[in-house]
Every structure is written in C-alpha cells, then in structure tokens.
C-alpha cells in the first residue's frame, strides 16, 4: 500500500503586467513573511519588486509570483514567472544610467538566484534569501 501526503499549497499571486504589479507583489510578499513570523522583510520586498518589474517591462503576459520556504535549507524562495523569452542579465555598473541597477543590487543581497526556462514557454526567475 502506498501512502501519499498532499503537498502544501504554495502562496501564489497572479498579476496583470502593468506598473501596479510591483506594489501588489511587495504587499503579497510582506504579508507572507509576516504570516511566517519573519520580521525583516526588506530584502524579500526588494527582490520581488525587481523581479516583477523586469517581468512587466521585458516579459510577456501575466506575471505569477510564488513564495515558499525551501524544506532542505529553510531559505525563502521567491519565484516570478512571465511568458517572455528574454533572460535577465546583471549589467556592469553604469554610473550615468538612470536604470539597470536592480539585478546587480539584488544579486549582492541574496545567497542564490537564477533563471529557469520552461518547456511550455516563458521563464521563472527565482531568488533565495534567509528567513530571518
């Protein structure tokens, strides 16, 4: 006899790809951090804001945000899906530029991040951060 245990539901948010998406995503992540008893949500809010902003500026279609704690290491994982084919890239600092610093800043604040392309199209950009 095989016993199965249902997987816990992962908090998920589906957003329209527009200028309001980063704000809604920040609130969603802050509420989840509070629910888990994580007092410092600054990095989580910054990460989700950057990833969602990239999704609506450079991706396609709706944006899906998922947030969960990795059972193996206890780190918080933020995933942002969009239907675009382009991959986010950390650019070298441009001190005269007015944008393009978000991924560089994020990459300095999190222990790990990356991009997974999906067979069905689009990509998931993810970041792991401490659950403090």
UniProtKB/TrEMBL annotation:
Domain of life: Bacteria
SUPFAM superfamilies membership: ATPase domain of HSP90 chaperone/DNA topoisomerase II/histidine kinase
Keyword Transferase set for record: yes
Domain Histidine kinase/HSP90-like ATPase per the UniProt entry, residue ranges: 17-126
Membrane-spanning parts: none
UniProt keyword annotations, A-Z: ATP-binding, Kinase, Nucleotide-binding, Serine/threonine-protein kinase, Transferase
InterPro entries named among the record's database cross-references: Anti-sigma-factor_SerPK (IPR050267), HATPase_C_sf (IPR036890), HATPase_dom (IPR003594)
Recorded GO MF terms: ATP binding
PANTHER family in alphabetical order: ANTI-SIGMA-F FACTOR RSBW, ANTI-SIGMA-F FACTOR RSBW-RELATED
Full protein name: ATP-binding protein
Species in which this protein is naturally found: Actinomadura sediminis
Organism lineage: Bacteria, Bacillati, Actinomycetota, Actinomycetes, Streptosporangiales
């Amino acid at each position: 006899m095989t016993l199965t245990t249902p997987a816990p539901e992962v908090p998920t948010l589906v957003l329209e790809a527009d200028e309001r998406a980063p704000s809604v995503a920040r609130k969603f992540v802050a509420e989840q951090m509070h629910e888990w008893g994580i007092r410092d949500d600054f990095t989580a809010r910054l990460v989700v804001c950057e990833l969602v902003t990239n999704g609506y500026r450079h991706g396609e279609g709706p944006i899906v945000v998922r947030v969960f704690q990795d059972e193996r290491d206890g780190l918080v994982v933020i995933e942002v899906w969009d239907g675009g084919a382009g991959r986010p890239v950390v650019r070298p600092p441009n001190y005269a530029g007015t944008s393009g610093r978000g991924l560089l800043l994020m990459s300095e604040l999190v222990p790990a991040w990356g991009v997974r392309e999906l067979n069905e199209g689009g990509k998931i950009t993810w970041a792991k951060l401490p659950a403090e």
